[in-house]
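FAQ
Q: What does a multi-component entry look like?
A: The components come first, one per line:
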Amino acid sequence: MKSKLNLNPELIDSARSAAKNIAEDVQKFIDKNTTVAVERTIARLMGVDGVDEIDKPLPNVLIDAIKEGGGLSKGAAFWIGNAMVNTGKTPQEIAEKVSSGEIEITKLPIASEDKILEAVYKTAEEMVERIKNNRNRRDEYLRTLGEGKKPYLYVIVATGNIYEDVLQAQAAAKQGADIIAVIRTTGQSLLDYVPYGPTTEGFGGTYATQENFRIMRKALDEVGEEVGRYIRLCNYCSGLCMPEIAAMGAMERLDVMLNDALYGILFRDINMQRTFVDQYFSRIINGFAGVIINTGEDNYLTTADAYEEAHTVLASQFINEQFALKAGLPEEQMGLGHAFEMDPMLENGFLYELAQAQMAREIFPKAPLKYMPPTKYMTGNIFRGHLQDAMFNLVSIWTNQGIQLLGMPTEAIHTPHLQDRMLSIENAQYIFNNVRSIGDEVEFKKDGIIQKRAQEVLTKAEELLRDIEKEGIFNTIEKGKFGGVKRSFTGGKGLEGVVEKDEKYFNPFIDLMLGGAR
Amino acid sequence: MENIQKVDLTKVKPYGDTLNDGMVQMSFTLPVPYGDEAKEAARQLAAKMGFDDPAVVYAKDLGVGYTYFIVYGKCTHTVDYTAIEVPKVDMEFMDREEVEQYIEENIKRNVVIVGACTGTDAHTVGIDAIMNMKGFDGNFGLERYKGIEAINMGSQVPNEELIAKAIETKADAILVSQVVTQKDVHIANLTQLVEMLEAEGLRDKVILVCGGPRISHELAQELGYDAGFGAGSYANHVATFVVKQIVERNLI
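Then the predicted structure of the entire assembly, as tokens:
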């Protein structure tokens, strides 16, 4: 593809190689450690589910027992496998017996390594097969039903009640939505467990539970058959239970997941050590399950200025790309994030937004870029808001974005009403159809405002990445270079859940999913 | 101009293109399937709301058996504008330099202000706009003010931690931002903070301010706050209120 922006390919290569080194540096840290969330995920993937009498999830019961027994550094797979060899029971039965106090999982005699591995891999392979089947099922739907044209229309539902969400999601699909995201209840990202069962109460969203995933999946498959389009389901693989949510999503055939450690560090004050380790495993699962991840760069611009800090978005996209590649997640599943957040009163702001979006398109040609709507400068003036969303839609179709998170005219007022979603879908459909081929028709003036802006942002991003390469990402975050937010290496939530791995440690799913044929 | 009717402020009603025509535009959804009956339902509903000549100018099928309407009608009610009183933070706001000078002349020490989004609220847009260096819309935030030590604790801060920080830093003022208001979660949160401050015997020693898009000064006072700042408030408004209160309440 010929660059419309006359971007210097050497600068792009240099930025990418810096990002690669940054990711490799962090990967060394990641490989040495595990977390309670990673181990709970292994338990879930081996079939542990359900809650005890005080609604504590059994994966938590089990991993807490291993941690208290001083065995976490060997990993859950080791202890579950050992218990399977000793008792002949399934991981679920073992978890139940640990819960009732019948088994002290770290006190059982240690079986031979071969037997443990055999037991673990047999169970793990079954789950990997199930996830592979889900992936095939999705491909089958896409072949038979087809899908909407890109950019996919992405809308949220957020009633707090999964059954009410279903109604709103089905309505949105009928109106033309391609992706339904069920917003999580406020605060879920900070829970160190995943709630269980269907839920009907939430604030500003609905709990992410496996049962809720299942209910919504079924509803979207039904409405997809009706409208003749596969409807993708999105949730939030972020916070303290990042890999667990990824596993639940893989089991229930979710299609899109928000998945970004940097976002959690900066905006939820989650400890950076914890969440980088969690992110790695979650991206392996997402990659294997064919899930498109969405990264959270757009959020920087809600706290930092979108015009001045545009290069931090690009730098972060480069880094996220490398972290994703490390986890075996292909470019086609990288929904790198950015946003239309410049001050609407900025002269030629539209041109700068266009430059940024086109630049991201050219630098990440295969990625289904996730483009976020204006939020920061949305007001109670829903009429101007509708126009801001229209300008946003125009940039998106012009620059061939992958996933269009639709802006709502009522963004500044409330979670979307049924009609708000209709108006937004209508807005996007009108513009997308009306200027469908504008990107193929219009080129940009050489050394004009748009070209120069993109070149300047790329230059600054490359410099920033070179700095981070020298400094390391941990220090960079400590200094507040992303989103203007400072976080310390040992601060934030969840650090107590990080442990260094023993040499006996193993995680069968990294092997099966990362090494497996794709 | 004599031919144009004068506004009677004791009986005000909406203006479309002629005084007292009462024209109102509205839109809503009814949980009924699209069709003539749906339009008639919307028309009758508008009539019951007190609109003369309701006209359903647009209707659209939302799928799932629901219909969206755009409706015009003539409002039959009036209000007496001359009798209206709205409680608000009633003061002349100083700009940043004036606040800085006021602190230097009247307080003669640093003013400490602690702020947070409390409870499960993760939306820091409001507190950041007031507190962070950059501020919002060209108005610098409190961090930028000479003489003010601004501590922004960020999002999802439990009320206990906010109070602990206020004690630790000997804060003059506490700012609480609440953006999420679904199911009135903000009311419970704001009320709890007041109760906890009272229990600690701190309520009279600090200036307590809340803010957010759904917060009014009236609501804030009802909940036991000194002031509430809604949409369109900037750091200098909050700063003016805080420094004047310090002097008035003799908290220097």
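Q: Is there any commentary attached?
A: Sometimes. For this entry: The radius of gyration of chain A is 23 Å.
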